Amino acid sequence: MHGIPITSADAYVVSLARHKFHVARLLSVFGLETPDSWFYTLEENWLDGQRPPNGLRVILKPTYESASIGITHDSVQTVDDSLDEKVGELALGYRQPITVQSFIPGWEVEVPVIHFDKPYAPMAVGISKLGNTLMGNDLLTYDDVNVDNYEFWKFDTNPALAEKLKATAIRASKVLGLRGFARIDFRVTPEGKAFITDVSTSPHTTAHSSYAFLFRSIGKSVNDLPPLLVGLASERERWI
């Protein structure tokens, strides 16, 4: 609004990416696979009266949060008649709508996307817990993220699948209008079907992050990340 240059996505895209339900539905319109999603508010309950069917395994997510805030092992539920009460309590506790999505068992993968003159995804980075690269029915809870209770690994068990994830992340980045540093997160079934589960417009670049893992893997220092981010923005502003 004040013409102040910023390093990554603009205000609209940052706000959009904070709305998990809207992002999932928008990406699906462009043919990008996302988990089946439903939306619950305290005021209107289920959007359009559409509720996940009983027997489906789902994950309950506070709509506006990041870094696994609001995610516990109890976030994954098998839908039954008590779901409305559980979702309502979560919406009241976090004072925001709840996005409910089909839970995808399998690998968890982050794809850093760096925007030069076009988006570039150098590597698909897997997430593991306790040495288990296949997360299966496990997930990253807030407690895990808060104390870095997880590891990174190069997702190269299936090179063709890794390339597919990178290409999908680049396309999602273009659809959403991401810039600078961004990250597209996936859950991938053992059969190789990939679903975009989250989007970050300002991903972590700390020593424990997929960006830091990527840079260390290519022989670069984590200290190179901030100058690169500023350099990309400066080039976009035609300062250099």
- Which percent band covers the strand fraction? 15-25%
The coarse silhouette is globular
Would you count the extended β strands for me?
Answer: 11
What is the CATH third-level topology name of the largest domain? D-amino Acid Aminotransferase, Chain A, domain 1
Return Rg in Å: 18 Å
CATH superfamily of the largest domain: ATP-grasp fold, B domain
Number of helical runs? 7
> Would you identify the regions where 5 or more consecutive residues have pLDDT less than 50?
none
Main sheet, how many strands, which sense, barrel?
Answer: 6 strands, antiparallel
Give the total of domains.
2
Q: Taking all residues together, what is the mean pLDDT?
A: 96
* Gap from first CA to last CA: 23 Å
What structural keywords apply?
Dna Ligase, domain 1; D-amino Acid Aminotransferase, Chain A, domain 1; six-stranded antiparallel β-sheet; alpha+beta
In short:
By secondary structure, the chain is an alpha+beta fold. It contains 7 helices and 11 strands. Strands 6, 7, 8, 9, 10 and 11 form a 6-stranded antiparallel sheet that branches. Strands 2-1-5-3-4 form a 5-stranded antiparallel sheet, sandwiched between helices.
Structure overview:
By secondary structure, the chain is α+β, with helices and mostly antiparallel strands. It folds into two domains: 11-19 and 105-236, D-amino Acid Aminotransferase, Chain A, domain 1, CATH 3.30.470.20; 37-102, Dna Ligase, domain 1, CATH 3.30.1490. Helix content is 30%, strand content 23%. It contains seven helices and eleven strands. The chain has helices at 11-17, 20-29, 83-94, 142-146, 159-176, 210-217, 225-236, and strands at residues 37-41, 45-46, 57-62, 76-78, 98-102, 107-115, 119-120, 125-128, 151-154, 181-188, 194-200. Strands 6, 7, 8, 9, 10 and 11 form a six-stranded antiparallel beta sheet that branches. A five-stranded antiparallel beta sheet has the order 2-1-5-3-4, sandwiched between helices. β6 and β7 (119-120) form a beta hairpin. The longest helix is centred in the C-terminal third of the chain and has 18 residues, at 159-176. The radius of gyration is 18 Å and the shape is globular. The two termini are 23 Å apart. The model has no long low-confidence stretch (mean pLDDT 96).
